[in-house]
Amino acid sequence: MENRYPEIDLIMKKMQEAVTKEREQHPAFYAKYPMRLITEAEEKDVRNVTSTWDLPEEYVYFLKRYVPERVSWSAVEYISIYIYGAKDLEAGQSGYSYNHVTDEVITDWPSDYLVIASDEGDPYCIDLSRGDTVIFTAQHGTGLWDFSIAYHNLSEFLNSVLHPRELEDEESPETIPSDYYKLQITGTGADKAKTLMFIKKMFSCDYTQAKAYLEKTPLIVYKGIEQGVAKIEEQLERIGADFEKHKISWEEFIELVQS
Questions:
Q1: Confidence class for position 204, pLDDT limits 50, 70, 90
Q2: Closest CA to 159 of 47, 244, 75
C-alpha cells in the first residue's frame, strides 16, 4: 500500500522502536505479553470491515498496515487502552452499539459512531457520517452517553495512545510503582433494584442482561490503578451494594484486561 500517511507511519515507527527496545531488555515479559505492531492485517479481515462500514481511507490504511489484532497498552494518558484491529473491530462494538448476548441493537447508542478503542470501558469513536477521523469519547457507566471531541484526527489520537509510560532506571514493567485493584460485586446488597441499575449503566446493557450478570457473582466491575477505584467504590457504597475490593499484582491486572 502506498505510503500516503507519513505522520501515522512516523508515530508507529517510534512505537515499534520502543516495543523492540523493551522486548530486548525484558524478553520473558514480552514473550508472555506480546504486541503485534506493524504487521499486515489479513486481506479477508480488511474486506470484512470495509464491507460492513464505510471507513475513512486514513483509518483503513492504519488497520491494514499496523494493528491486525487488538493490542493493549498502558500509556501516559490512559489506564489500559485497547486499540481494535481489523480482526476484532466488530467484536469491539459489543456493549456499545449492540448486545452480543441478546443479539440486539442498543438504541441509545449514536448509530454512526464506531468504537476504535476503549480505556477501561470509556469508548473512543469516529463518527462515520463525517468521513474524517475526528475522535470522540465519553465516560461509561453514567447512564447517558455525553460525547465530546478528544482528538482532531487519528494521528493526534495515536500519538497520545502509543506513547508508553517511561521506565525509569531500566525497571521492568512489573516493577513500575503503582497499586492495582479490582472491585467485584458479590451480592444484591441492600437494594437489588439499585444494584441492577448500577450494572445496567456500567455495562451499557438492558435489564435482562443486568439480572444475568448479577446471578453470576462475583462480578468484576472495575480493574485498574488506585486513582480510578475510589469513584466506583463510592458509587457502590452509596447504593448499598455487596462488594469487595482486592489489591492485585500488575501481572494479575494485565491478565484481567486481556481476558
A1: low
A2: 75
